[in-house]
Amino acid sequence: MLVRKKVRKNRYKKSTAPAKTNFKKVFLRCFVGTGLLAGLALFAVLSILVYDVFTQSPYFNAKDIEIRGNSRLSAQDVLDQAGLSLGDNILSVSLKKVQDSVTAHPWVSKAKVRRNLPDKMTITVTERKAIAVLDLGEAFLMDAQGEIFKRFEAADPRDLPIITGLKFSDISVAGEKMSPVYEAVYEFLKVKKEYEWALPCSSVAAIRVDRDMGLTLVSREPEFAVRFGYGDYANKLMRLNQVLLKCNKEQGIEVALIDIVDVDRVVVRPREEV
Fold first, then answer.
1. Exposure b/e, 133-157, CB count within 10 A at least 16 = b
2. Is the preceding peptide bond at 118 cis, omega within 30 degrees of 0?
3. Inter-residue contact 147 to 132 (CB < 8 Å)
4. Residue pair 237/229 in contact by the 8 Å Cβ criterion
5. Among the CATH numbers 3.40.50.300, 3.20.20.70, 3.40.50.11690, 3.30.450.40, which is that of 130-273?
6. Architecture of the 58-127 domain
């Protein structure tokens, strides 16, 4: 008996039936996409119109610009540096741009700008504190962080100690390590500020730097020199105060030179011996 073998269909044979396209779905997708684009365009136009309305409205014009933290700079100095004036629309002002403009002033280390709706602004500045003048052939100001921030000008403070003996290669640039002699000067000035009672900064006329021998301080009135050498400045300043009290008040000695390089072996030379 013969059995016929069932022939199976080839599932992988490409169908010759025409592809059916769902035009309705395509139309809906196109319609939705067009609607979204139109909505985004309308939103952008409305945003621009709203921005223009607010940034041109006199309701937001500055009636008061408060300056805080300034002592050396006048309020007008800060306003001129910021490029602001009363009547400016505070919403049209870029806070970042104003902040960058203010901190570009050599006497300003930090600035913060804030809007106070609807018609006020506040600029808070942190001014640099000059602690010394560096004589490098040209005179420059050093701030409390040890950075050189501007050339010395006629209007700058004149009661600062003048530092001599340094070179341009010693100068501290922000982010770079100080040279050993520059670091010694900076460290002395920091410690000196903490021990103001020992010898007021205003009475220091100059600090001479010798790379081998260290620092020598020259006072203003009365004029005398103090050899500090390097390091241990706190103990040396306290010892100096004791020596000056003893010489000037107890013994009436007019001092010309004090060698305090070794805090345990202080040498005092009266003026008539120099």
1. bbeeeeebbbbeebebbeebeeeee
2. yes
3. no
4. no
5. 3.40.50.11690
6. Roll (3.10)
pLDDT at 1 over 60: no
**For residue 10, what is the enclosing H or E element?**
none
Tell me, what's the pLDDT at 210?
96
Token pair of 117, please?
């709706």
Query: Cβ distance 263 to 231 under 8 Å?
Result: no
Domain edges within the chain: 58-127, 130-273
Packed helices 95-103 and 75-82: angle between N→C axes, nearest 10 degrees: 120
Q: Which two tokens stand for residue 77?
A: 């100095």
Q: Give pLDDT tens digits for 38-87.
A: 777 766 665 565 555 557 788 889 999 999 999 999 999 999 999 999 99
Residues written for the chain = 274
User: Which pTM value belongs to this model?
Assistant: 0.76
**Tokens representing residue 33 in the block:** 């996409």
